[in-house]
Design goal:
Blueprint lengths: L1 H15 L1 H35 L7 E5 L10 H5 L6 H10 L4 E12 L1 E3 L2 E2 L4 E6 L3 H4 L4 E4 L4 H6 L3 E4 L1 H7 L9 E4 L2 E9 L13 E5 H8 L7 E6 L5 H15 L11 E4 H44 L1 H9 L4 H37 L8 H27 L3 H6 L2
Parallel strand pairs: 5-10, 7-9
Antiparallel strand pairs: 1-11, 1-12, 2-5, 2-11, 3-4, 3-8, 6-9, 7-10, 8-9
Helix pairs in contact: 1-12, 2-10, 2-12, 2-13, 4-9, 10-12, 10-13, 12-13
């Protein structure tokens, strides 16, 4: 009953000074929000990493002109590299044919697909590739057939439609064998790709796939670098395949032994590692900002509690004169400080989780609740309440009742 009465007095005191309490709670909430919001978003990204960045097929890696993620080196270093042109890519594919499947890709965005009076928005991605593309990027053919090696060899004007494109231009109709028009060029639909869904703002269902030779014949070969996906036969062979691929690429690029690689290789694992490194840096920055904000909020809690002790000196004297113990006074004021911190912590968690998940939703990543960081945040808020409220509570409990009763 004593504890219940102490808590009742503490909350009634906070309610009596609503504006002051609200401002203190707001300071705590901002500090907690800064870290919970970031951690919620990062946790959502981590949960989606396997599916979102796992765009490559099993046992695969890519060879490209540019690195997938770059923050340290100037972009001109990579722009000045030679493009991986079609003769190089085709020669590499031929050299690797006995040990791995190689897929060639190049794409162009902002395309519109027209069928009679129907057309898509100008945001379709046209991909020039080969017969290994659907395996390399985990696609399934829902109807019709895949691109064939002869389609690539002869540059046939055929295509596969992503699910969103097919639904838009052939609603309720048979698409196979029909003609679609893209940027003034006609393509015969020979296959429909199974739906995959969006991830990280990328929509693989809003694509059209055509032979890379047809793509290059239409849009030209100059200033175009081809990306290569290499798929080993199994996980055990992946390191050896990657080492061999680097050697073959150096051969087709005619690099001398002392020349550094003028291309990049990366796999699912390297993408995940790169993302985790960035996430760790962002998380560390959020923790520093949150620590500064919470420290400032803790000082605010102490200041508010010292003001409260001064304002209620006579009340403390009356309570002591009718038998209140020093421990009861200390617990009452300490409870007020902890309550302020925890209410701010709960508000910060609520706003942080909502904000972090809203950003995650907009980026099509997983919606999560960071239980660990929520627990840590609330524990830190409780610690702030105890740490910064202890001195004002001790000061209140140590007041001399006679002097307190005389206070005006």
């Amino acid at each position: 009953m004593l504890i219940r009465e102490i808590l009742r007095l503490a909350f009634s005191s906070l309610a009596a000074n609503k504006l002051r309490s609200a401002l203190t709670v707001l300071g705590i909430a901002v500090g907690v929000f800064s870290v919970i919001g970031v951690m919620t978003f990062i946790n959502g990204m981590r949960d989606s990493i396997e599916t979102g960045l796992n765009v490559l097929g099993a046992n695969s890696f890519q060879i490209t002109k540019f690195p997938p993620i770059n923050f340290s080196d100037p972009g001109t270093r990579f722009r000045n590299r030679r493009d991986i042109n079609y003769p190089m890519a085709d020669r590499f594919k031929e050299l690797m044919a006995d040990s791995a499947k190689v897929s060639l890709q190049i794409n162009r965005g902002g395309m519109t697909v027209n069928v009679r009076d129907r057309k898509t928005n100008p945001n379709v991605r046209l991909i020039g590739t080969d017969e290994n593309y659907i395996t390399a990027f985990n696609f399934d053919v829902a109807a019709g057939r895949n691109l064939g090696a002869d389609d690539v060899e002869f540059g046939r004007p055929v295509c596969l439609l992503g699910d969103d494109v097919a639904t838009k231009v052939f609603p309720g109709e048979e698409a196979l064998g029909q003609l679609v028009r893209i940027n003034g060029q006609n393509y015969t639909v020979v296959g429909l790709l199974a739906r995959k869904g969006t991830s990280f703002g990328n929509n693989p269902d809003n694509t059209v796939v055509t032979p890379i030779t047809r793509f290059l014949a239409t849009y030209g070969r100059s200033f175009r670098s081809i990306n290569l996906n290499v798929q080993a036969s199994n996980q055990t062979e992946l390191p050896a395949t990657q080492e061999r691929a680097v050697g073959m690429m150096r051969l087709v690029r005619a690099l001398a032994p002392e020349d550094p690689n003028d291309f990049e290789t990366f796999s699912n694992e390297s993408l995940i590692d790169a993302f985790n490194s960035i996430a760790d840096i962002v998380a560390a920055g959020a923790l520093v900002i949150s620590a500064i904000a919470l420290l400032a909020s803790g000082v605010g809690v102490m200041n508010i509690m010292l003001v409260s002790v001064t304002e209620r000196t006579k009340e403390i004297g009356i309570r002591k004169s009718i038998g209140a113990r020093k421990r009861s006074i200390l617990l009452q004021f300490l409870s007020e400080a902890v309550a302020l911190s925890l209410i701010g912590g709960v508000a910060g968690v609520a706003i942080g989780v909502t904000g972090g998940n809203l950003v995650a939703f907009l980026l099509n990543t997983a919606v999560t609740f960071p239980w660990l960081w929520t627990g840590i945040g609330l524990a830190v808020c409780g610690g702030i309440g105890v740490g910064f409220g202890l001195y004002p509570a001790w000061k209140a409990a140590s007041l001399d009742p006679i002097e307190a009763l005389r206070y005006e």
